[in-house]
Amino acid sequence: MSKVLVIAEHLNGKLNAATAKTVSAALALKPEAIDVLVLSDAPDAVATAAAQIAGVTKVLTSANAANAHAIAQVLAPQIVEIAKNYSHVFGPSTTFGKDLMPCVAALLGVGQVSDLMAVESPTTFKRPMYAGNAIVTVEAPADHIVVATVRTASWPEAATGGGAAVEAVSVSAALPTHTRFVELAAGKSDRPDLQSAKRVVSGGRGVGSAENFKIIYDLADKLGAAVGASRAAVDAGYVPNELQVGQTGKIIAPDLYVAIGISGAIQHLTGIKDAGTIVAINKDGDAPIFEITDVGLVGDLFQILPELAGMLASS
Ligand code: FAD
């Protein structure tokens, strides 16, 4: 029987929703147990939240000042020590997991299953390749611990209502000092997190400038949405690259995705394949984005958006 260790992603004492999605993937294995590991300097609040996830057997915590920041090289040896009791180690395929899990796999001497999107058996999984244009079935060796990143856009958050026990564990692994936290440079925003937002409004090259992007931020704020962008908009310097959606940006699955002045290149569409309702505003009626939209508005964004904002204000 499988025993899965899920690595909790968290920031500032808050559990990231990617963890509950990773638990969903773990549940698909029908395992004997799913334990969530919280590595932090102060794990209590995160552990309490993780214990609420339905299907979690136990939450393990390791409090260590060295875990104040999620540095892959520091976290990985601790995970490897605990992983010895498990058949599978899963982390989310987010920036956090993509950084951390390959280190875990390397220290365990196994190959990593990346972007797990479906479970066929405890060692057989489906994952996308070629920017999501092909789905490949991969088989992990049965006699090794399976290390995988879970494609969060493919899995719903596991329900809450669980009541797992929380257990502090001590870890004796020697931690490297060659990699240290220096500073975190991140844009400050009160908007929802792009990766986990239920609604996302994205702008592309058609928006035309950083100043014009205000119209995108305004619509996002009216909808309570996160802001995203195409790579062309990022490359042109309209917005920071943490907002990029797509193959080389963030893969997201909001309930509502609004693409404004975005043509719909395959590399962009890869990032929104699992979105619920897709709306596009583009002045070119032949833009490829319209092939995948649920609602398409053909017209000039600078005319349509103020009209839309007016309607939202009066509704
Ligand atoms: P464009 O393709 O230039 O489209 C702009 C659109 O705006 C047009 O359709 C135009 O009709 C419309 N428009 C212009 N003015 C207006 C107006 N006033 N009103 C309404 N509509 C208007 N791209 C990503 O987005 N994410 C990725 O992660 C990504 N990764 C890549 C990885 C690789 C290896 C490669 C090769 C490319 C990648 N790209 C990625 C780039 C991708 O191929 C496209 O170049 C990019 O997505 C185009 O961005 P865009 O749609 O904003 O720009």
Automatic annotation (TrEMBL):
Co-factor remark: Binds 1 FAD per dimer.
Ranges where the Electron transfer flavoprotein alpha/beta-subunit N-terminal domain occurs: 4-185
Origin: domain of life: Bacteria
Keyword terms: Electron transport, FAD, Flavoprotein, Transport
InterPro entries: DHS-like_NAD/FAD-binding_dom, ETF_a/b_N, ETF_a/FixB, ETF_alpha_N, ETF_asu_C, ETF_asu_C_CS, Rossmann-like_a/b/a_fold
BP-aspect Gene Ontology terms: fatty acid beta-oxidation using acyl-CoA dehydrogenase
Binding site residues for FAD: 205, 230-231, 244-248, 261-268, 282
Reported cofactor(s): FAD
SUPFAM superfamilies the UniProt entry points to: Adenine nucleotide alpha hydrolases-like, DHS-like NAD/FAD-binding domain
GO molecular function, one term: flavin adenine dinucleotide binding
Protein family according to the UniProt entry: Belongs to the ETF alpha-subunit/FixB family.
PANTHER family for the chain: ELECTRON TRANSFER FLAVOPROTEIN ALPHA (PTHR43153), ELECTRON TRANSFER FLAVOPROTEIN SUBUNIT ALPHA, MITOCHONDRIAL (PTHR43153:SF1)
Function statement: The electron transfer flavoprotein serves as a specific electron acceptor for other dehydrogenases. It transfers the electrons to the main respiratory chain via ETF-ubiquinone oxidoreductase (ETF dehydrogenase).
Name of this protein: Electron transfer flavoprotein subunit alpha
Organism from which the protein derives: Solilutibacter silvestris
